[in-house]
Specification:
Blueprint lengths: L1 H8 L5 E6 L4 H17 L4 E6 L4 H6 L7 E6 L2 E7 L4 H11 L1
Parallel strand pairs: 1-2
Antiparallel strand pairs: 1-3, 3-4
Helix pairs in contact: 2-4
Length: 99
């Protein structure tokens, strides 16, 4: 998974990675917010969801200790990180700031 993930985040466009778990209530609340972010920014961002229960080594690599945790990458570099469900405007602002 790691090699594929590295290729995924090595993009000139921002890539927002949402580390989540199926059993996580705040993760379920964040899902429609991320859809709104994608609807607003369109091709300006790629949003990837990573289930920590199915991808534990990747979660460990990025020190994800709680879900949801969002990481924002551009050109393979992590530029932003937040845990918890955030309002749409905070996520959009972070993505625009690194665009």
């Amino acid at each position: 998974m790691k090699g594929k993930f590295d290729k995924l985040i090595d993009s000139e466009f921002p890539v927002l990675v949402d580390f989540f778990a199926e059993w996580c209530g705040p993760c379920k609340a964040l899902a429609p917010i991320l859809k709104q972010v994608k609807d607003e920014l369109g091709d300006g961002v790629r949003i990837v969801k990573i289930d920590i229960d199915k991808n534990q080594p990747l979660a460990t690599t990025y020190q994800v200790r709680g879900v949801p945790t969002m990481l924002l990458f551009k050109n393979g570099k992590q530029l932003w990180r937040k845990s918890g469900a955030l309002p749409k405007h905070e996520i959009v602002e972070a993505i625009i700031a690194v665009s």
